[in-house]
Target: MerR family transcriptional regulator
Amino acid sequence: MIIVYTIGEFSRIGMISTSALRFYDEIGLLKPSKINRFNGYRYYSEDQVEDIHFITEMREYEFSLEEIKGFIGSNKINLVAELQKKHEKLFWKQQKILYVRRKLKERIKKTQGADSFMEINNKANKLEIKVASKDKPIKTVGISINIPAWPPEDASIFGDLWSQYWDRDVSSKISNKIYPSVRYGILAFTEAGIQYIVADAVSSYEDIPEGLVTFDIPKGEYAVCTFNGETFDEMVNSSMQRANDYLLTTWLPKTEYKHAESFSLEVYDDRSRKKEYPEMDIMQPIVKKG
Model:
């Protein structure tokens, strides 16, 4: 027996309005399996129940109707890739919300005249340094911003560049990526000026999209400082500042090394996406003192 549903029944199954179903028909996203040519009544088949549930689910993930239309009938590999990109984009969106909430909390306490406070948790105080050798240079491609003076007047320029990176979906435009889950934040001091780059590592500089820049991370020895924070926002702000200060002003002077190059690296990978106590590395190029 073939089961069919009226538009009203199907709207309840899909938990959307009948007007939305009519709109889906107009744009070719989901057409009724049958339309009565005498009275115009629309009917949907049992096979379309999975389709409407899929569409509803994708809408929850904030995909546009045009994007969802492209998913229907596409292969699983393409769908998984799009879902992974959305997952990562929503992660950074969540971090921005957490950052704003923290700033609001600080503003409320400051306005009320209360002393600022910080809950110290030993789990969020990880700080480890080791020396690591890179046998070959790493090619990177990404987007950049020029910084007129150091330190910058507005530190939010770094976060803004990361937002551009995700909003413009830069990573998906870069070919030949060798570490798909790793992103670099590169601060470079050159004769041309100061530059901050958000980049992916690549195997070659072929087919570089217009508007993107390249940077070679040299081979050699690096001081690698691994640290964490209670939240992602804490990690990339107060924890990173503390780690940088300790590495350059406390650890390095006591070793046989000195700073070698006029750049530094931030390394974000799967550890950085942990919900609790995310971790990352900062890397400073070093050489032995003469």
User: Anything to note?
Assistant: The chain has two domains: 4-71, 122-288. The domain at 122-288 is CATH 3.20.80.10 (Multidrug-efflux Transporter 1 Regulator Bmrr; Chain A). The chain has eight helices and twelve strands. The longest strand covers residues 138-147.
